[in-house]
Amino acid sequence: MLFTKVKNKKNITLGFKKDISMDKITIRPSSISGFVNCAYQWYNVNVLGVKTIPSARANIGTAIHKAAEVLWTDAIKTGNKDCNLTKLKDAAIQQYQQLDKEEGIFYNDGENKNTAEKEVVTGTKAFSEDIVPYTDIPIAVEKRLVYKLNNPIAGQLAGTVDYITKDTIADIKTSGRKIYPGKHILQQSVYNFLAIKNGINVSKILIQGVVLPKKTQPYGEVLKLKPNMSRVMYIVNNILESLKILSTDKVDPKILFRGNPEHFMCNNKYCSLYSTCPFVNGMGLST
């Protein structure tokens, strides 16, 4: 079975030794790798609605996304790529400051709001100089694509695609290190699935990468990516089957969604669950 369509949406109640009421959840392409890296964190964030610690790095990326959205939205209207850098920087900084106000961003040692905003500005500049001149004006930006699911907990598979032409989808990625397309195969394969199901004849999947090294000049690059549909379909179906079992309330979620204390981001800097996580701290042995 693969993604059958849902007939209706309803509230559900689930929980193991605890009652939780919610609407059906959305499975996002960006969350698929999180399920693989730490299913316990995935369950807490995506099913229970627990918030992890927002990082400056993630929100720098969101701010640069905003600049790209403003640029391409104007270009679609006018037919011209007008890189008004002041306008783009202002949009990006405004987005970052809003996120900082709403979420309370976590900064690593040596980072603060000023250093983060500087990276937002230099990243926006790199995008406009290194990517935009070599990229066609899209037909749509920040377009939400949805596919309905027949699952007691998950109502839809849905995500927002950064850039779409008649035959291409692209995702903006920001990183402090060189970007490797292979690290994004799961997410982009889901976007490929969503695009096809929404009538887009995808022949190319691209990463529009903005690299922000600490010691050298930021730069942008466009990278090709080949999807792995069989891998991602297996993983998504694994998520859906796990959620079906969860809905019966007969299996402890900690068995269905196991933690990964060996993952490099398993620490209290990146996960608010760390201090109470049973996979980190243990809970004793049953006999």
Give a structural overview:
- There is one protein chain.
- The protein is of the alpha/beta class and 287 residues long.
- It has a domain at 56-230: Lambda Exonuclease, Chain A, CATH 3.90.320.
- Helices cover 40% and strands 18% of the residues.
- The strands form 2 sheets. Strands 3, 4, 5, 6, 7 and 8 form a 6-stranded mixed sheet that branches. It has a two-stranded antiparallel sheet with strand order 1-2.
- β7 and β8 form a beta hairpin.
- α3 (56-78) crosses α4 (85-103) and α3 (56-78) packs parallel to α5.
- The longest helix has 23 residues, at 56-78.
- It is globular and about 60 Å long.
- The two termini are 38 Å apart.
What's a quick, concise take on this entry?
The chain has 287 residues and is an alpha/beta fold. The chain has 9 helices and 8 strands.
Overall body shape: globular
CATH fold description of the domain at 56-230: Lambda Exonuclease, Chain A
Unreliable stretches covering 5 or more consecutive residues: 1-21
Helical stretch tally: 9
| Main CATH class of the domain at 56-230 | Alpha Beta
Helix content: 25-40%
What CATH architecture of the domain at 56-230 do you see?
A: Alpha-Beta Complex
β-strand amount: 15-25%
Listing every helix as H and every strand as E from the N terminus to the C terminus, the arrangement reads EEEHHHHHEEEHEEHHH
Radius of gyration: 20 Å
**What distance lies between the first and last C-alpha atoms, to the nearest angstrom?**
38 Å
| Mean pLDDT rating | 89
| SS content category | alpha/beta
Major β-sheet profile = 6 strands, mixed
The overall strand count is 8
